[in-house]
Specification:
Number of strands: 7
Largest sheet: 5 strands, mixed
CATH superfamily: Beta-grasp domain
Strand order of the largest sheet: 2-1-7-4-5
Number of helices: 3
Number of domains: 1
Helix content: 25-40%
Order of helices and strands: EHEEHHEEEE
Shape: globular
Distance between the termini: 40 Å
CATH topology: Ubiquitin-like (UB roll)
CATH class: Alpha Beta
Radius of gyration: 12 Å
Length: about 80
């Protein structure tokens, strides 16, 4: 029983890899605990968004991922 966390863009470098499997179920607090203190501080910022199985959450603190779900951490978009 696992949830896959995907780290996109510069979050990948902070996480030390593109993805990580963690035990299900996973809520916001559990996500922060699983990514480490430095990355957790970044994720708390309002410019970082969270998608659950392809749908961006309006309130990332309402995250609840079950077995087989994918959680994507989305950094701010830049460019023109």
């Amino acid at each position: 029983m696992a949830v896959t966390i995907l780290f996109l863009g510069p979050l990948r470098d902070l996480a030390g890899g593109a993805s990580r499997d963690v035990a299900a179920p996973l809520d916001w607090s559990g996500l922060l605990d699983n990514v480490g203190e430095d990355l957790a501080d970044v994720l708390k910022g309002e410019r970082i968004h969270v998608a659950l199985s392809g749908k961006v959450l309006i309130d990332k603190a309402a995250l609840y991922a079950a077995d087989g779900d994918e959680v994507a951490l989305l950094p701010p978009v830049s460019g023109g």
